[in-house]
Design a protein that fits this description.
- Helices cover 86% and strands 0% of the residues.
- The chain is mostly helical and 165 residues long.
- The longest helix has 29 residues, at 92-120.
């Protein structure tokens, strides 16, 4: 009995390992299929999230079921993001948005530095604001290069020090 169980476990482990290996080999060869797989995973995540939103949470059992569904949705979201980054390691789809958000956030930082400089009568805040403004100008220049297709996303991420999130 124990030998039979061990053989089944070893066979199952071998099959899983073989499927993972074959999947990784195929994924390297076909980026389009990876993108399709990521889109399918995103659709499944959206469907499961809709199920989560529709679940009642009045009784203890309902709350437990909703928590389990939430955990499932979160793991699907993590897996979806992993697949998206495998298909597009530079995350070109979100680059423009990330660049725009960085410029907007840094602009708010400059405003706060200027307010602090007036409030505290301290010139170090103005110096910090100038440094951040230089960073904003660098990001805006990168944004123009991206819009004009003069540089790739990979080059711009490296130059602008914008990591993939």
């Amino acid at each position: 009995m124990k030998l039979k169980t061990k053989l089944i476990a070893i066979t199952a482990t071998g099959l899983v390992a073989a499927s993972v290996f074959s999947f990784s080999v195929l994924a390297d060869k076909d980026v389009a299929s990876m993108k399709a797989l990521a889109k399918a995973a995103r659709d499944k995540e959206t469907l499961e999230h809709n199920v989560l939103d529709a679940m009642p949470d009045q009784t203890r059992e309902d709350k437990d079921a909703k928590n389990q569904q939430g955990i499932k949705v979160k793991s699907l979201g993590n897996e979806t993001r992993r697949l998206e980054l495998e298909a597009d390691p530079d995350d070109t789809e979100n680059f423009a948005k990330q660049l725009e958000e960085s410029i907007g956030n840094l602009t708010l930082v400059v405003i706060e530095y200027n307010r602090d400089a007036v409030r505290n009568s301290d010139d170090t805040y103005l110096k910090n604001a100038e440094e951040v403004e230089k960073r904003i100008e660098k990001l805006k220049k990168g944004q123009e290069e991206y819009k004009n297709n003069t540089k790739t996303v990979k080059q711009l991420r490296k130059e602008l020090d914008l990591p993939v999130l």
